[in-house]
Amino acid sequence: MSDRLRQLQEKYRPHFEKIADGASERDATRELPYELIKQLIADGFGAVRVPVEYGGAGATLPELFELLTDLATADSNITQALRAHFAFVEDRLVAEPGPARDAWLRRFVDGDLVGNAWTEIGDVALGETATKVSPTDDPDVFRVNGQKYYSTGSIFADWTDTTAQRTDTGDQVIAVVSTHQDAVARFDDWDGFGQRTTGTGTTIFTDAEVSAENVILFSTRFKYQTAFYQVVLLSVLAGTAAAAEKDFGATLAARHRTFSHGNGPAPQDPQLLQVIGEVSSAAFAARATVYRTAQALQDAYDAAFALREGTLTLEEEERVNDHTELASAQGQVALTGYVTNAISHAFDALAASSSSTSKNLDRHWRNARTAGSHNPWVFKAKQIGDFATNGTVPSRIWAVGSTK
Asked: Which keywords accompany this UniProt record (predicted)?
């Protein structure tokens, strides 16, 4: 462990402990953690990847994902709520140097938070974007119109990272829209059974204003973005497993009742301890997987700068990104079932009382199952198999939409 990571973990431990204290109640009541996220970001958490010379902590990607896993252990919802923010930070870190990049790095240090508005539901055709960005009479101002769903984190954020199409050129773009305007309406209408307090839901843009400098060609996004988004979800799974280990272990430790057909009179029957040990092992393996995939992300980040400096060819840089995508997919396939099944099996260490809604232990399974349902792993497994068999590299960009 680096000294920097140790210092960052020490700095944010009080935040994580406070977040963990109310996680179960927030899940039960669907209370959004506005103030907790505000405090965390105000203490510089959103800028841990920003270089020190700009006022950030200069953390590496493995260090960032260690912190995100710690946070997910406290409340996996908050890690997922910050997913889009850290992805946009990463995009700006890799962006071409210049005033626009510098302005964003300063915003992150000042505590600005970015959310997500990418997905459109309904009959939007596969690969198309119904949200439009239009020029105005003022060359420095564009207008955004459209509706998004799964806008994770945007309800907490100062900006929302929005996919759209320009009406004048037809280009696919990212419009980074300030949420501090009446033309942006955000709703907490996510009705999933897990990850209930991620602030996911609908965002509607009605002639929302965005500055020209914040209309960014999608083709310039950092190449390892899909892998990055996936590894955040892996940290959500790893943290959820660690939280389950803690809560199920504490519940078993507090038991005074046992069964006559057990292995002895002790409530902590050896077979039940074995179950908790299996959950603990799943949490260990999940964290190790997050670390390994985060290192692959770091390789892709380093390759982007090596390409710019001329020490790596484009072909070599593409190959690094392909392997980063593959690593994130392998991690997803490995962890989705492993973590979800381990948490489900954790109930075998307890009795029927563990299903009490007052204990809310089921939230760990619900959260893991929900996080694991993103970007279906079965398609990723197919791509991994195609690479292993035929050398076909996995796709790094994909879309969702109607095939009607």
From this structure: Oxidoreductase
Helix (H, G, I), strand (E, B) or coil at 145: strand
pLDDT at 397: 77
Residue 375: strand, helix, or coil: coil
Cα distances (angstroms) measured from residue 209 to each of 140, 174, 179, 182, 221:
10, 13, 10, 10, 22
**In the predicted model, what is the mean pLDDT of the chain?**
92
Per-residue pLDDT at 400: 67
pTM of the complete model = 0.94
In this structure, the number of other CB atoms found within 10 A of the CB of residue 256 comes to 5
**94 confidence band (pLDDT: 50, 70, 90):** very high
pLDDT for res 396: 81
Q: Give the C-alpha separation, 268 to 262, whole Å.
A: 10
Q: Alpha-carbon distance 342 to 243, whole Å?
A: 12
The closest alpha carbon to 394, from 313, 318, 282, belongs to: 318
What is the second-level CATH architecture of the domain 225-390? Answer: Up-down Bundle (1.20)
Architecture of domain 3-113: Orthogonal Bundle (1.10)
Give CATH for domain 117-220: 2.40.110.10
SS (H, E, C) 69-132: HHHHHHCHHHHHHCHHHHHHHHHHHHCCCCHHHHHHHHHHHHCCCEEEECECCCCCECCCCCCE
In which residue ranges of the chain is CATH 1.10.540.10 found? 3-113
**Could you tell me where in the chain the CATH 2.40.110.10 domains are found?**
117-220
105-124: pLDDT as tens digits = 999 999 999 999 988 876 66
Residue found by looking up tokens 């078993």 in the block: 252
Q: How would you class 183 by CB atoms within 10 Å of its CB: exposed for 0-12, middle for 13-18, buried for 19 or more?
A: middle
